[in-house]
Amino acid sequence: MEKFFKWFIIIGRYSSIFLDKQLEKYGLNSSHYPYIMRICSNENITQEYLRKIIHVNPSNITRSLDFLEKNEFIKRYKSATDKRTSNIVPTEKAFKVYKELREAEHIWFNRLLKDFTKEEKENLDNMLQKITLTVLEDFNVRKEHRK
């Protein structure tokens, strides 16, 4: 297990490079990936809830959402029930990127897991979920934000 970090860093780095190439034509990069994916799959999500489920600090989310709004990937509206929060709605432009990212995920995962059996893929998924839940637990992330 002494190379645990090494493997995660290598996989993360090359996954980011792959996503950067997919997103380049939209003026986006891999750091925008979790925003596009979560916003498009949770329409009308609040900024605070988004921050919690993608596990970033408030300044990062504000900066990223400002960029996405300026470039017409999202629209933000003040919440009708709580004026301190914003609801985030994806635009058609965001949905176009989302659709391509879903396809890119499929291509990337198939490439990475091409030599795995179905059972190995399921086991890996279960183990990664278990590791992630342990990390979130260790950092006292509330259960409803562990999606």
Beta-strand content bin? 5-15%
> Helix count, per DSSP?
6
User: Can you identify the CATH superfamily?
Assistant: Winged helix-like DNA-binding domain superfamily/Winged helix DNA-binding domain
User: Based on the structure given, which CATH architecture is correct?
Assistant: Orthogonal Bundle
**What would CATH call the class?**
Mainly Alpha
Taking the sheet with the most strands, its summary is:
3 strands, antiparallel
Q: Pairing-aware structural class of the strands and helices?
A: mainly alpha
Query: What characteristic shape results from the CA principal axes?
Result: globular
Q: What is the tally of beta strands?
A: 3
Radius of gyration: 17 Å
The helical percent reads 55-70%
Largest sheet, order of strands side by side? 1-3-2
Number of domains: 1
Taken in chain order, the helices and strands follow as HHEHHEEHH
Termini separation (Å)? 26 Å
Explain what the structure shows.
- The chain has 147 residues and is mainly α.
- The chain has one domain (4-112): Orthogonal Bundle (Arc Repressor Mutant, subunit A), CATH 1.10.10.
- It is built from six helices and three strands.
- The protein has helices at 4-23, 33-41, 47-54, 58-70, 92-112, 118-138; strands spanning 45-46, 74-78, 86-90.
- A three-stranded antiparallel beta sheet has the order 1-3-2.
- A hairpin with a 7-residue loop joins strand 2 and strand 3 (86-90).
- The longest helix is centred in the C-terminal third of the chain and has 21 residues, at 92-112.
- The chain is globular and about 50 Å long.
- It starts with a helix and ends in a 9-residue tail after the last helix.
